[in-house]
Amino acid sequence: TGCLYLVPTPIGNLDDLSVRAVKTLQQVALIAAEDTRNTQKLLNHFQIPTKQISFHEHNTQQRLPQLVALLQSGQDIAQVSDAGMPSISDPGKELVQACVAAKIPVIPLPGPNAALTALIASGLSPQPFYFYGFLPRKKSDLQQTLNFLAQLTTTFILYESPYRIQQTIAHLQTVLGSQRPIVLARELTKIHEAFLRGSLAEVQAYFHDHAPRGEYVLLVAGKSGPAVVTWSASQVLAQVHTEIAA
Ligand code: SAM
Questions:
Q1: Which of 28, 65, 136, 223 could form a disulfide with 141 if both were Cys (CB 3.0 to 4.6 A apart)?
Q2: Contact 32/80 with Cβ under 8 angstroms?
Q3: Helix 93-101 and helix 60-72: axis angle, to 10°?
Q4: Which segments cross the bilayer (predicted)?
Q5: 217 C-alpha vs ligand 1 centroid, how far in Å?
Q6: CA pair distance 25, 50, nearest whole angstrom
Q7: Higher pLDDT residue, 29 or 243?
Q8: 185 Cβ inside 6 Å of ligand 1
Q9: Residue 69: in which H helix or E strand, if any?
């Protein structure tokens, strides 16, 4: 049988595609991509001629038997998402589960991931941490999730779009209070990379005169306990204002 390779792709800076990732994408028979047009740009940049097939949340059930059959016939397949690690707030897990069930080897490559990249520079306690990803949209699910997150004593990590970041900060304040330290990691690995550190109230105030732009990872300190940072939120925010202005 063939192997399923899970290949992380850059979250902004193309130089972050590893040498092994390039070799793997070149050597496999087929690349299963979340968005083939998006991935084609990456393949063109690295002059990788490998053929693609789309694999995303809307065609998962149809694609799974096709991809498993190809793997069983001896073809190697690489799976990629639009950015970062497949399966992490992205398509992937169903294919991995199907391969595990069919005893097809699954070979993960290490590489770019927004959550861990943000965490290591956040200044928040990095261990233990809890990764959540995108908050649910449905009101009742959202409330339940927020109540759950409010109990955590560890740093937790959310993904958010620029359109919803202010609303999410407001939701967090209603359950966590205004003083909880948070860090926003914006546009990681890109030209406008910046870290915004402060209390929930301070970060909310920052957005009153700065429109949110780009992609964000939102990291929240756990509730009082050993995992909580000791720096003064307002000092750190001041430092970051200049960073953002620079
Ligand atoms: N699979 C990806 C990973 O491993 O990080 C995550 C994909 S998820 C659909 C996209 C979200 O990841 C964005 O809404 C944002 O929260 C976060 N993200 C991705 N790239 C980012 C970047 N360059 N800077 C900040 N956040 C980023």
A1: 136
A2: yes
A3: 40
A4: none
A5: 7
A6: 7
A7: 29
A8: yes
A9: helix 60-72
**CA dist., res. 194 & res. 72, Å (int):** 45
pLDDT digits (tens, 9 = 90+) for 9-56: 999 999 999 999 999 999 999 999 999 999 999 999 999 999 999 999
Which ligand 1 atom is at minimum distance from the Cα of 115? Answer: 5
Is the peptide bond prior to 128 cis by the omega test (within 30 degrees of 0)? yes
ipTM reported for the complex, 2 dp: 0.99
pTM over 0.80: yes
Q: Hey, what amino acid is at 121?
A: A
Per DSSP (E only), the strands in the chain are 4-6, 30-33, 51-54, 77-80, 106-108, 129-134, 155-160, 181-186, 194-199, 216-220
Spatial neighbors of 165 by CB under 8 A, at least 6 apart, are 184, 207, 212, 216, 218
Instruction: Using the mean position of ligand 1's atoms as its centre, give its distance from the Cα of residue 73 in Å.
Output: 34
pLDDT single digits (tens) 68-114: 999 999 999 999 999 999 999 999 999 999 999 999 999 999 999 99
Q: Is the dihedral of CA 126, 16, 4, 61 positive or negative?
A: positive
- Number of other CB atoms surrounding residue 63 within 10 Å: 19
